[in-house]
Amino acid sequence: xxxxxxxxxxxxxxxxxxxxxxxxxxxxxxxxxxxxxxxxxxxxxxxxxxxxxxxxxxxxxxxxxxxxxxxxxxxxxxxxxxxxxxxxxxxx
Length: 92
Fold this sequence. Notes:
Elements: E1 2-6, E2 11-15, E3 22-23, E4 31-33, E5 40-42, E6 49-53, E7 58-61, E8 79-81
Parallel strand pairs: 5-8
Antiparallel strand pairs: 1-2, 1-6, 3-4, 4-5, 6-7
Protein backbone atom coordinates (compact mmCIF):
# COMPACT_ATOMS: atom_id res chain seq x y z
CA UNK A 1 0.00 0.00 0.00
CA UNK A 2 1.23 3.50 -0.87
CA UNK A 3 0.50 6.09 1.80
CA UNK A 4 1.29 9.80 2.12
CA UNK A 5 0.16 12.68 4.29
CA UNK A 6 -0.55 16.19 3.04
CA UNK A 7 0.68 18.62 5.66
CA UNK A 8 -1.28 21.46 4.06
CA UNK A 9 -4.68 19.94 4.94
CA UNK A 10 -3.50 17.17 7.32
CA UNK A 11 -5.17 14.49 5.16
CA UNK A 12 -3.74 10.96 4.93
CA UNK A 13 -4.04 9.45 1.46
CA UNK A 14 -3.76 5.67 0.94
CA UNK A 15 -3.67 3.88 -2.38
CA UNK A 16 -4.57 0.28 -1.54
CA UNK A 17 -4.37 -1.28 -5.00
CA UNK A 18 -3.24 -0.56 -8.57
CA UNK A 19 -5.13 2.39 -10.07
CA UNK A 20 -6.56 3.39 -6.66
CA UNK A 21 -6.04 7.13 -7.21
CA UNK A 22 -6.45 9.20 -4.03
CA UNK A 23 -6.19 12.99 -3.74
CA UNK A 24 -6.95 15.88 -1.45
CA UNK A 25 -8.79 19.04 -2.49
CA UNK A 26 -6.53 21.56 -0.79
CA UNK A 27 -4.29 24.02 -2.70
CA UNK A 28 -1.34 21.58 -2.50
CA UNK A 29 -3.23 19.12 -4.78
CA UNK A 30 -1.50 16.10 -3.23
CA UNK A 31 -2.23 12.74 -4.84
CA UNK A 32 -1.04 9.14 -4.75
CA UNK A 33 -1.68 6.08 -6.89
CA UNK A 34 -0.42 2.54 -7.37
CA UNK A 35 -1.09 0.56 -4.21
CA UNK A 36 1.55 -2.16 -3.79
CA UNK A 37 2.34 -2.28 -7.52
CA UNK A 38 4.02 1.13 -7.88
CA UNK A 39 4.07 4.57 -6.29
CA UNK A 40 2.99 7.60 -8.31
CA UNK A 41 2.56 10.83 -6.43
CA UNK A 42 2.30 14.53 -7.04
CA UNK A 43 1.78 17.83 -5.29
CA UNK A 44 2.42 21.54 -5.64
CA UNK A 45 5.00 21.65 -2.81
CA UNK A 46 6.87 18.45 -1.85
CA UNK A 47 7.93 20.01 1.46
CA UNK A 48 4.28 19.80 2.53
CA UNK A 49 4.07 16.01 2.03
CA UNK A 50 5.20 13.11 4.22
CA UNK A 51 5.68 9.51 3.03
CA UNK A 52 4.83 6.41 5.01
CA UNK A 53 7.88 4.33 6.01
CA UNK A 54 6.81 0.73 6.78
CA UNK A 55 10.04 -0.12 8.60
CA UNK A 56 9.95 2.91 10.89
CA UNK A 57 6.15 2.76 11.12
CA UNK A 58 5.93 6.53 10.72
CA UNK A 59 5.68 9.29 8.15
CA UNK A 60 8.97 10.72 6.89
CA UNK A 61 9.94 13.73 4.79
CA UNK A 62 10.89 13.38 1.12
CA UNK A 63 14.63 13.22 0.55
CA UNK A 64 17.03 11.94 -2.05
CA UNK A 65 16.90 8.54 -0.30
CA UNK A 66 13.18 8.11 -0.97
CA UNK A 67 14.09 4.77 -2.58
CA UNK A 68 14.65 3.42 0.94
CA UNK A 69 10.89 3.49 1.60
CA UNK A 70 9.95 2.03 -1.78
CA UNK A 71 10.62 -1.60 -2.57
CA UNK A 72 12.94 -2.44 -5.46
CA UNK A 73 10.16 -3.54 -7.82
CA UNK A 74 8.59 -0.09 -7.54
CA UNK A 75 11.82 1.83 -8.11
CA UNK A 76 11.41 2.01 -11.89
CA UNK A 77 7.78 3.12 -11.56
CA UNK A 78 8.36 6.20 -9.39
CA UNK A 79 6.97 9.30 -11.05
CA UNK A 80 6.63 12.78 -9.68
CA UNK A 81 4.17 15.16 -11.32
CA UNK A 82 3.21 18.83 -11.08
CA UNK A 83 5.19 21.72 -9.68
CA UNK A 84 6.88 19.42 -7.18
CA UNK A 85 9.35 18.60 -9.96
CA UNK A 86 11.25 21.74 -9.00
CA UNK A 87 11.84 20.19 -5.55
CA UNK A 88 13.02 16.75 -6.71
CA UNK A 89 16.84 16.75 -6.90
CA UNK A 90 16.93 14.12 -9.65
CA UNK A 91 14.86 16.42 -11.91
CA UNK A 92 16.94 19.58 -11.51
